[in-house]
Amino acid sequence: MFMAKLREAVICFKAGRVTLPYPAAPHDPEPGFRGKITIDPDLCFGCGGCANVCPAGVIFLHDAEQHARILELHWSRCTYCGRCAEVCPEDAIALTQMFETATDRAEDMVISLKVFMGPCQRCGRCFLPPTVLDQMDVAGFHEAGGGRP
Ligand code: SF4
Ligand code: SF4
Questions:
Q1: Which residues 6+ apart lie within 8 Å of 101 measured at CB?
Q2: What's the domain count of the chain?
Q3: Which one has a higher pLDDT value, 145 or 133?
Q4: How far is the CA of 75 from the centre of ligand 2 (A)?
Q5: Rounded distance between C-alpha atoms, residue 148 and residue 124, angstroms
Q6: Is the minimum distance from the CB of 80 to ligand 2 under 6 angstroms?
Q7: CATH code for the domain of 56
Q8: pLDDT tens sequence across 1-32
Protein backbone atom coordinates (compact mmCIF):
# COMPACT_ATOMS: atom_id res chain seq x y z
CA MET A 1 0.00 0.00 0.00
CA PHE A 2 2.70 2.47 1.01
CA MET A 3 4.78 1.56 -2.05
CA ALA A 4 1.78 2.07 -4.36
CA LYS A 5 1.20 5.53 -2.93
CA LEU A 6 4.89 6.33 -3.26
CA ARG A 7 4.84 5.23 -6.91
CA GLU A 8 1.81 7.48 -7.50
CA ALA A 9 3.60 10.41 -5.89
CA VAL A 10 6.69 9.86 -8.06
CA ILE A 11 4.53 9.73 -11.21
CA CYS A 12 2.78 12.98 -10.19
CA PHE A 13 6.07 14.77 -9.53
CA LYS A 14 7.43 13.60 -12.89
CA ALA A 15 4.31 14.79 -14.76
CA GLY A 16 4.67 18.29 -13.40
CA ARG A 17 1.73 20.66 -13.23
CA VAL A 18 -1.18 19.58 -15.45
CA THR A 19 -3.84 22.03 -14.20
CA LEU A 20 -4.17 25.76 -14.82
CA PRO A 21 -3.39 28.14 -11.97
CA TYR A 22 -6.71 29.95 -12.59
CA PRO A 23 -8.30 31.60 -10.59
CA ALA A 24 -5.13 32.28 -8.61
CA ALA A 25 -3.65 33.70 -11.82
CA PRO A 26 -5.44 35.31 -14.79
CA HIS A 27 -6.44 33.02 -17.64
CA ASP A 28 -6.53 34.02 -21.32
CA PRO A 29 -9.01 31.89 -23.27
CA GLU A 30 -7.89 30.11 -26.44
CA PRO A 31 -8.31 31.96 -29.76
CA GLY A 32 -11.85 31.49 -31.05
CA PHE A 33 -13.31 31.23 -27.56
CA ARG A 34 -16.93 32.42 -27.53
CA GLY A 35 -17.72 34.49 -24.46
CA LYS A 36 -20.06 37.34 -23.55
CA ILE A 37 -21.74 38.97 -26.55
CA THR A 38 -21.21 42.64 -27.24
CA ILE A 39 -22.96 44.99 -29.65
CA ASP A 40 -21.48 48.07 -31.26
CA PRO A 41 -23.98 50.95 -31.12
CA ASP A 42 -22.19 52.76 -33.95
CA LEU A 43 -22.63 49.84 -36.35
CA CYS A 44 -26.05 48.41 -35.47
CA PHE A 45 -28.85 49.76 -37.66
CA GLY A 46 -31.67 47.85 -36.06
CA CYS A 47 -32.48 45.41 -38.87
CA GLY A 48 -33.43 42.62 -36.47
CA GLY A 49 -31.53 39.89 -38.31
CA CYS A 50 -29.83 38.77 -35.12
CA ALA A 51 -33.15 38.51 -33.27
CA ASN A 52 -34.62 36.41 -36.09
CA VAL A 53 -31.92 33.76 -35.97
CA CYS A 54 -31.17 33.56 -32.25
CA PRO A 55 -32.24 30.06 -31.21
CA ALA A 56 -32.34 30.96 -27.53
CA GLY A 57 -34.63 33.99 -27.80
CA VAL A 58 -32.02 36.32 -26.34
CA ILE A 59 -32.66 39.37 -28.53
CA PHE A 60 -35.84 41.47 -28.50
CA LEU A 61 -36.67 44.48 -30.64
CA HIS A 62 -39.40 47.06 -30.28
CA ASP A 63 -40.00 50.52 -31.65
CA ALA A 64 -40.04 52.83 -28.66
CA GLU A 65 -41.05 55.90 -30.62
CA GLN A 66 -41.07 57.03 -34.21
CA HIS A 67 -37.32 57.62 -34.35
CA ALA A 68 -36.02 54.98 -31.99
CA ARG A 69 -35.82 51.21 -31.98
CA ILE A 70 -34.82 49.42 -28.79
CA LEU A 71 -32.73 46.25 -28.85
CA GLU A 72 -32.59 44.23 -25.65
CA LEU A 73 -30.22 41.31 -25.26
CA HIS A 74 -31.16 39.11 -22.28
CA TRP A 75 -27.91 37.25 -22.48
CA SER A 76 -28.33 35.06 -19.40
CA ARG A 77 -30.06 32.73 -21.91
CA CYS A 78 -27.24 32.96 -24.46
CA THR A 79 -25.78 29.64 -25.57
CA TYR A 80 -22.79 31.36 -27.23
CA CYS A 81 -23.57 29.72 -30.55
CA GLY A 82 -22.41 32.81 -32.46
CA ARG A 83 -25.27 32.73 -34.97
CA CYS A 84 -26.15 36.40 -34.34
CA ALA A 85 -22.58 37.48 -35.12
CA GLU A 86 -22.58 35.37 -38.29
CA VAL A 87 -25.69 36.97 -39.77
CA CYS A 88 -25.19 40.61 -38.74
CA PRO A 89 -24.60 42.51 -42.00
CA GLU A 90 -22.62 45.21 -40.20
CA ASP A 91 -20.55 42.97 -37.91
CA ALA A 92 -22.10 44.87 -35.03
CA ILE A 93 -22.34 41.82 -32.74
CA ALA A 94 -19.27 39.97 -31.55
CA LEU A 95 -18.56 37.28 -29.01
CA THR A 96 -15.81 38.50 -26.76
CA GLN A 97 -13.23 36.58 -24.76
CA MET A 98 -14.99 37.58 -21.54
CA PHE A 99 -16.02 34.60 -19.43
CA GLU A 100 -16.05 35.89 -15.85
CA THR A 101 -19.66 37.02 -16.00
CA ALA A 102 -21.11 35.82 -12.70
CA THR A 103 -23.26 38.45 -11.01
CA ASP A 104 -26.00 38.70 -8.39
CA ARG A 105 -27.73 41.58 -10.20
CA ALA A 106 -30.29 40.58 -12.84
CA GLU A 107 -29.88 43.91 -14.67
CA ASP A 108 -26.25 43.02 -15.43
CA MET A 109 -27.54 40.31 -17.73
CA VAL A 110 -29.40 42.70 -20.03
CA ILE A 111 -27.76 44.81 -22.73
CA SER A 112 -29.97 47.63 -24.04
CA LEU A 113 -29.35 49.62 -27.15
CA LYS A 114 -31.37 52.51 -28.56
CA VAL A 115 -30.94 52.78 -32.32
CA PHE A 116 -31.83 56.03 -34.01
CA MET A 117 -34.20 55.43 -36.92
CA GLY A 118 -35.59 57.86 -39.49
CA PRO A 119 -39.15 57.45 -40.77
CA CYS A 120 -39.70 56.95 -44.47
CA GLN A 121 -41.25 60.09 -45.91
CA ARG A 122 -43.87 58.02 -47.74
CA CYS A 123 -44.87 55.18 -45.43
CA GLY A 124 -43.68 56.47 -42.03
CA ARG A 125 -41.81 53.24 -41.26
CA CYS A 126 -38.36 53.43 -39.70
CA PHE A 127 -35.08 53.30 -41.57
CA LEU A 128 -31.60 54.43 -40.65
CA PRO A 129 -30.34 57.52 -42.50
CA PRO A 130 -26.96 56.76 -44.05
CA THR A 131 -24.81 59.41 -42.36
CA VAL A 132 -24.85 61.45 -39.17
CA LEU A 133 -25.49 64.62 -41.20
CA ASP A 134 -28.45 62.94 -42.88
CA GLN A 135 -29.76 61.94 -39.46
CA MET A 136 -29.77 65.58 -38.34
CA ASP A 137 -31.71 66.49 -41.44
CA VAL A 138 -34.31 63.77 -41.17
CA ALA A 139 -35.01 63.88 -37.43
CA GLY A 140 -38.23 65.76 -36.81
CA PHE A 141 -39.16 65.79 -40.48
CA HIS A 142 -42.17 63.56 -39.99
CA GLU A 143 -43.64 65.64 -37.14
CA ALA A 144 -43.15 68.80 -39.21
CA GLY A 145 -45.89 67.39 -41.39
CA GLY A 146 -44.68 66.76 -44.85
CA GLY A 147 -42.13 69.07 -46.43
CA ARG A 148 -38.43 69.02 -45.94
CA PRO A 149 -37.55 71.82 -43.48
S1 SF4 B 1 -26.81 43.77 -34.39
FE2 SF4 B 1 -26.64 43.49 -36.61
S3 SF4 B 1 -28.24 41.96 -37.13
FE4 SF4 B 1 -28.72 42.77 -35.08
S5 SF4 B 1 -30.15 44.47 -35.43
FE6 SF4 B 1 -28.07 45.35 -35.33
S7 SF4 B 1 -27.40 45.42 -37.50
FE8 SF4 B 1 -29.15 44.01 -37.42
S1 SF4 C 1 -24.67 33.71 -29.47
FE2 SF4 C 1 -26.41 32.43 -30.13
S3 SF4 C 1 -27.73 32.29 -28.31
FE4 SF4 C 1 -26.30 33.98 -27.94
S5 SF4 C 1 -27.44 35.81 -28.63
FE6 SF4 C 1 -26.22 35.09 -30.36
S7 SF4 C 1 -27.59 33.75 -31.56
FE8 SF4 C 1 -28.49 34.02 -29.49
A1: 35, 36
A2: 1
A3: 133
A4: 8
A5: 14
A6: yes
A7: 3.30.70.3270
A8: 789 999 999 998 888 888 888 999 999 999 99
